[in-house]
Amino acid sequence: MEKRVALYPGSFNPFTIGHLSILERGLRLFDKVVVVIGCNGAKDSSRTSADELRSKLAHLTGVEVMEWDGLTVDAATKVGAGWLLRGVRSVADYEYERNLADINRELTGIDTVLLTAEPRLAMVSSSMVRELRHFGHDVSDYIV
Ligand code: ADP
User: How far is the centre of ligand 1, averaged over its atoms, from the C-alpha of 1 (Å)?
Assistant: First the structure.
């Protein structure tokens, strides 16, 4: 039977325990989840690198990690992913994610599976981690 492969794209700037939760839950739905770190050409020291993430996720089966600076749907085509995986924390996230899902489906026919955030993780965001880190706060509880 053909493997069910999903692409989990994001900035992951940095990769948080909220991202990890979506990834782990995605792995229960798909045979393989390819985490795609969007680079957009820009260098950013707080973004989690592919090498770093690969070693942090080494205990999980069915995960691949890659960096990509093009369109998400082109990455999906390249790795043969049939679905995109994204997370939703709030109504604001939902509006944003629905737009992205619509355009990506329009472009390629690829559907997006949206998983709602675990309530205890709904306040975890990369921007919150960057802000805490900027002011010297320990963020180890929030990142992988
Ligand atoms: P982007 O910059 O493309 O929005 P992010 O790296 O911020 O990407 O997030 C990637 C995906 O993970 C998005 O779908 C986002 O909504 C989701 N996400 C981020 N934090 C959480 C969280 N705490 N719980 C659930 N989903 C999350």
Answer: 31
**How far apart are alpha carbons 80 and 64 in whole angstroms?**
13
Spatial separation of the C-alpha atoms in residues 34 and 125, rounded to whole Å:
20
Tell me the pTM: 0.96
Question: Is the CB of 86 within 6 Å of ligand 1?
Answer: yes
Give the closest residue (by CA) to ligand 1 atom 10.
Answer: 10
Q: Whole-angstrom distance between the N-terminal and C-terminal Cα of the chain?
A: 33
How far apart CA 132 and CA 115 sit, in angstroms, is: 26
CA gyration radius, the chain = 15
- State pLDDT tens for residues 31-53: 999 999 998 766 677 888 999 99
